[in-house]
Amino acid sequence: MTKEVEVLIKLGKDEIVASALKSIGGNVSLENFSSATVLTNGKEVYVSLRNQYKYLPINTIYYFDVGVNITTQTTYKNSVANPYNYSTERTIPYFKSTEDINKHIDFVKHAIGNLEGFEDDLIIRENEDFYAIEVVSESQESSYKIKKGTGEIYDEFHAHLEPIPFDIDDAEEFKEVDFPEILK
Questions:
Q1: What is the pLDDT of residues 72-114, one digit of tens each?
Q2: Residue 144: strand pairing partners
Q3: How does strand 121-126 pair with strand 74-82?
Q4: Nearest Cα to Cα of residue 46 among 180, 170, 177, 169
Q5: Residue 171: pLDDT above 60?
Q6: What SS3 state is found at 146?
Q7: From CA 8, how far away is CA 26, in angstroms rounded?
Q8: 8 Å CB contact between 119 and 135
Q9: Is the C or the N end of the chain the one with fewer CB within 10 Å?
Q10: How far is CA 42 from CA 27, 71, 74, 176, in A?
């Protein structure tokens, strides 16, 4: 681990995440994300701000996930839209959960069933009569629809993805920082 990374890690998770939020700028806070993770590969420190469940009403676009490389002061963000090609002239807002949004997400989660151990992203695009669902993981890509009112799942599509055809050097891989362990 480089000296620069050691110094950053000693600041602690809260201060590192606050630094990442500050570098994003605008009107963004931890309330815009369901999780914040600090990662390092020993040479760089990276903060991942994420929303696992991405709900989009009709004709909306949001930033759901943001990555900030604290070491290089680089920010990565990607918008998700409903419909796919929806765009706006205005500044794209960061997602912020509300009670109404949580009701939609809970309906979809209930319709899907057991999500215990589910760690992937679930994109929920609302339509007039159904929710279009998209799930992408390292090993599978799925899409289907859930009928509003009944929760019936239909138009299912699943594709198994091939692993990347080369090995990633473990020394270069970003891993979550275990702060209690590091600060011993």
A1: 999 999 899 999 999 989 899 999 999 999 999 999 999 998 8
A2: 133
A3: unpaired
A4: 177
A5: no
A6: strand
A7: 23
A8: no
A9: C
A10: 31, 11, 17, 11
What is the residue whose two structure tokens read 């469940």? 53
Q: Which tokens is 141 given? A: 């890509």
Element (H, E) at 18: helix 13-24
Q: What is the pTM of this model?
A: 0.86
Cα(59)–Cα(54) distance, integer angstroms = 14
What's the pLDDT tens digit per position in 35-74? 999 999 999 999 999 999 999 999 999 999 999 999 999 9
Q: What is the pLDDT of residue 118?
A: 82
Residue 133 to residue 118: CA distance in whole angstroms: 15
φ, ψ (nearest 5 deg) of residue 145: -120, 150
Q: What 8-state DSSP symbol labels residue 180?
A: H
Give me the DSSP letters along 40-105.
E-SS-EEEEEE-SEEEE-TTEEEEEEEEEETTTTEEEEEEEEESTT---SSPPPBP---HHHHHHH
Nearest-angstrom CA–CA distance, 18 and 6: 17
**Which one has a higher pLDDT value, 138 or 177?**
177
- What is the spatial distance between Cα 70 and Cα 116, in angstroms, rounded to a whole number? 32
Residue ranges making up the domain that contains 46: 3-167+175-182
Structure tokens at 56: 């989009």
| R_g (Cα) of the chain, nearest Å | 19
